[in-house]
Amino acid sequence: MTTSPPAIAEPRARIRFDRNELSGAFGDMGTDFPLIAGMILAAGLNPASVLTLFGAMQILTGLLYGIPMPAQPLKAMAVIVISQKASGAVLYGAGLAIGLVMLVLAASGLLTRLADAVPKSVVRGIQFGLGLQLATLALRDYVPAEGAGGLILAVLAFFITLLLLGNRRIPPAPFVLALGLAFAFWFRVHPKLLMQGVGFVPPALHVPTRHDVWVGFYVLAIPQLALSFGNSILATRQVAADLFPGRDLTIKKIGLTYSAMNLVNPFFGGVPTCHGSGGMVGHYTFGARTGGSVIIYGLFYVLLGLFFSAAFQQVIPLFPRPVLGIMLLFEALALVLLCRDMASSIADFAVVLVVGVSALALPYGYVVGLVLGLLLHYLFLNRLQHLSR
After folding, report:
1. Counting Cβ atoms within 10 Å, is residue 355 exposed (0-12), middle (13-18) or buried (19+)?
2. Residue 4 half-sphere exposure, CB side, CA atoms within 13 Å?
């Protein structure tokens, strides 16, 4: 498996629709779909609104960036909502709150100044920690989720992906997803029940109250901010530079589109969304090279939301967790491999390990890792400067 950017040698199309974009479109589904489904069920959200708005954000980012720039659910918020069953009103208020905070940070230039103070080794550590988290999630929770039959399914999906990964003529994701659909229809989903729920359902309008915004800010937005700064902003900009070195993606632009999504989503019942380094790597790993992949992915969610939301309980098993786990595992491995450029420096590699392990193992790990990484970097830097005098 290689993560070297072939975009240098290929035509730099902004939007393309072909078999590789189709394969890459679903490269991050293992992260997104379980979180979205979990929030819908835990908070009693309107599936039509959530799915349609999530898809619309994908389409808009694909058109705007022209690379596989994903929209993803805000992970810290999603985990709190699923585990503590926070209300949908508070979730929408939190989305609006974090959108306003990010707008101020990006428009004022403070976000860019903060990003400039964070060295590459710390950003790589954030990527490393995220890769470890995704791999742990895939192997611990997703792959064993369907028992012995699911384990066989996961093994088949693993070898299909391993065989076809990087193949531009026969990319892997359509075959892996087809395997999962066959398993679902054979063991889990009744086609008649699925078709009975098909029908047009538009998104519902929603106006967050001032109370919901304040409660959402304290309960959900504050725990999310450090993860968003580290993964959604810093690590995403770094991955874009790794994989698409000529695109000159700025911190300010990423912050503004992050903000715009969350200033729109709450008013139409959409869950808070961000960008993400893991998502971009997932799309890229499974074949995507342009914004076409996230547009295809977005259309998939829009169609689910508008026409299949009433049958959402039947839709969930269509994508078995063992299959999503294998896709998530390869995304995680590709993300970790991007950190290998730090191996030439003992000091930088130490920072990567400290930040990554902190993000994986500690409460508020991304905050702790970010702080420890900055301290270690500048201590190493000052020590080296002192020794060179």
Report:
1. buried
2. 4
Burial class (CB within 10 angstroms; exposed 0-12, middle 13-18, buried 19+) of 313: middle
What are the residues facing 83 on neighbouring strands?
none
Q: Which residues are bridge partners to 72 per DSSP? A: 274
**Angle of the 292-307 helix axis to the 277-285 helix axis, nearest 10:** 100
pTM exceeds 0.70, yes or no: yes
Q: 5-31: per-residue pLDDT in tens? A: 444 334 468 999 999 999 999 999 999
- β-partners of residue 274 are 72
Predicted local distance difference test score (pLDDT) of residue 246: 82
What SS3 string covers 224-239?
Answer: HHHHHHHHHHHHHHHH
Per DSSP bridges, beta strands 273-274 and 72-73 are antiparallel
Instruction: Give the tokens for residue 376.
Output: 């270690």
Low-confidence spans in the chain with pLDDT less than 50: 1-11, 385, 388-389
Q: Is 85 left (phi over 0), alpha (psi -120 to 50) or beta?
A: left
Query: 128 near 356, Cβ under 8 Å?
Result: yes
**Site of tokens 């988290």:** 133
Q: What's the pLDDT at 54?
A: 98
- State the Cα–Cα distance between residues 303 and 200, nearest whole angstrom: 9
